[in-house]
Amino acid sequence: MLLLLHFALLKLVSAAVSLTLAIPTGVFMPTFVAGAAIGRLYGELSGHDHPVWFVLAGAAAFSGAATGTLSTSLIVFELSVLIANFAMHACGTLPFYDLGIRIKRLPHAPITSPILLARCSKIKVSQVMLPPERAVKIGLGDTNDALRKLLRRHPNFESLPLVQYDEAHAEPGNADDRVCSAVLELM
Q1: Which InterPro entries does this UniProt record tie to the protein (predicted)?
Q2: What does the pLDDT read at residue 167?
Q3: What architecture is domain 131-186?
Q4: Residue 89: per-residue pLDDT
Q5: What stretches in the chain show pLDDT beneath 50?
Q6: Which pTM was predicted?
Q7: How do the domains of the chain map onto residue ranges?
């Protein structure tokens, strides 16, 4: 513990020196390390079972207090989350929510590899989507016959976009195919 106290004091002095030099030497790392040492020292002195837990809090608090900005403290916590996320992906495990979706066999978007994502990043939206003129849609002014024909042509669609015909092509909602079929049977 004496060694940790000595380290924390030396880091405080080196942080003070680097902050007051006339040349730009950096503010973040010296205050970050000094705060981490002070946090660990506090964890040891408080007699906590896990004094390591105070390291990150001390680093964030001290660097935030030294620079006077909230963003420095946020960067510390974001950095730890990013490192944990990277470690999880490096181990090849699924995130918690994705795992739940897979176990329950719910419909979901496919989880893609970084290699596939790199290939897909070169694809333009126009290569995947249809232009509005060719898109399957029903309009507010369409007749019952047009709706019947559309449902027969596309029996596997679960819903159809309901498009208001104007110059903006606004899409106020969608119509469920079962509801459309039930309404047509009533007419």
Answers
A1: Cl-channel_core, Cl_channel_volt-gated, ClC
A2: 54
A3: Alpha-Beta Complex (3.90)
A4: 75
A5: none
A6: 0.42
A7: 2-90, 131-186
